[in-house]
Design a protein that fits this description.
Layout (H helix, E strand, L loop, with lengths): L1 H42 L3 H12 L5 E2 L7 E2 L10 E4 L3 E4 L8 E10 L4 H7 L1 H13 L3 H4 L2 H18 L5 E11 L1
Helix pairs in contact: 4-6
Length: about 180
């Protein structure tokens, strides 16, 4: 009987040690999860994202002008049914303007047309369109194109340049379907 009491007393500390270890592991797990969430929130705290979120909450259907003096407005809240005819362009791979090293931009885009009749004119002027777009893209630095505002400026510049060349309508918008900087 004395042996039974000794074995029971020996298992009690082992069980309490296992329980203590499980509690410590669970607490560490929650600390790691909370730390990961905090790091994620701190790293994604981009002023543009915060500002855009506030604008969307305040005015969900507001239009923002891309460039001063332009008739084009950039509207994040447009329904897909409001988008006009899309004219896809082949992929552009260009060198960016750089002093220090080689930076490449690979971009694919589609043009939103005012009407289908414009696609015939664009087909006939494809080489000239591609040349103008390449000239615009190669004149940009990494800093100019890496932000959302920079991409909007490029879109506006491309659209203004192409609209000045065409006569059968106008380009209403530019949509990037691929935008890779290397």
């Amino acid at each position: 009987m004395a042996e039974e009491i000794e074995s029971t007393e020996e298992t009690k500390p082992a069980k309490s040690n296992n329980l203590l270890m499980m509690i410590i592991i669970i607490i560490l797990f929650f600390i790691i999860i909370i730390g990961g969430v905090v790091v994620f929130l701190l790293m994604s705290d981009d002023p543009e994202v915060t500002q855009n979120t506030k604008q969307v909450q305040e005015k969900p259907r507001s239009k923002r002008s891309v460039s001063k003096g332009s008739n084009y407005t950039y509207d994040d809240s447009r329904d897909l049914s409001d988008i006009g005819v899309l004219y896809p362009l082949d992929t552009f791979t260009v060198n960016l303007k750089s002093d220090a090293g080689h930076r490449y931009l690979k971009v694919t885009m589609s043009l939103e047309l005012e009407g289908e009749e414009l696609s015939v004119e664009l087909d006939a002027k494809t080489a000239v369109l591609r040349d103008r777009i390449i000239r615009i893209l190669t004149s940009k630095t990494l800093e100019e194109i890496s932000s959302k505002k920079g991409k909007q400026k490029i879109s506006q510049q491309i659209m203004d340049t192409l609209n000045a060349m065409i006569s059968d309508g106008k380009i209403k918008g530019i949509y990037f379907t691929e935008f890779v900087i290397q």
